[in-house]
Amino acid sequence: xxxxxxxxxxxxxxxxxxxxxxxxxxxxxxxxxxxxxxxxxxxxxxxxxxxxxxxxxxxxxxxxxxxxxxxxxxxxxxxxxxxxxxxxxxxxxxxxxxxxxxxxxxxxxxxxxxxxxxxxxxxxxxxxxxxxxxxxxxxxxxxxxxxxxxxxxxxxxxxxxxxxxxxxxxxxxxxxxxxxxxxxxxxxxxxxxxxxxxxxxxxxxxxxxxxxxxxxxxxxxxxxxxxx
Length: 228
Ligand SMILES: *[C@@H]1O[C@H](CO)[C@@H](O)[C@H](O)[C@H]1NC(C)=O
Known about the structure:
By secondary structure, this protein is α/β, with parallel strands linked by helices. It contains 9 helices and 5 strands, in the order H-H-E-H-E-E-H-H-H-E-H-E-H-H.
């Protein structure tokens, strides 16, 4: 009888010992979602991703160019005061009478201006001063031709993941050494889908050349301004 009771009293100890040995440890990362883009529709996609990570148990903080688009989200949101109007709404973007390169040029200017405005924001500057190496485990970066801000991963000395709404563009492929393979991978500017016909491939090849030799230098021109 006594032996029987003794067996019961040590059950919790056995239980805890076994759960310590067999339960898989849960790991939670400190993630910063940084979405400096003038496009609200992009922010909606990035914030959904950040929220899913927060739901999965990660410690997620979000900085974005505008008000929080997911009020019920589980991430921490750093609300920026005094953000300008979304310049993508400006008419020169939809003004089809202008040639593509001019519209694209003003798009790049808008993107760079908005990204810079977000980064210069007082609350973002405060956050960057208070958080450095070792404070963030992963930077979830909303990419939209705001290449100069990729350096934020260097500030936090952490890995970076790019969130983008479409397939990688030439600039991103180049960073990671990914060949663009225009012979069978439709580029973003050609509006083609797989499988491509022979003429489709020819068109895709031409568009890929334009992306490499016209779009990329334009992007680099805008990016370089932030290093001067
Ligand atoms: C970025 O913003 C700061 C502060 O508003 C400004 O001084 C700087 O010239 C801007 N950089 C570029 C390249 O426009």
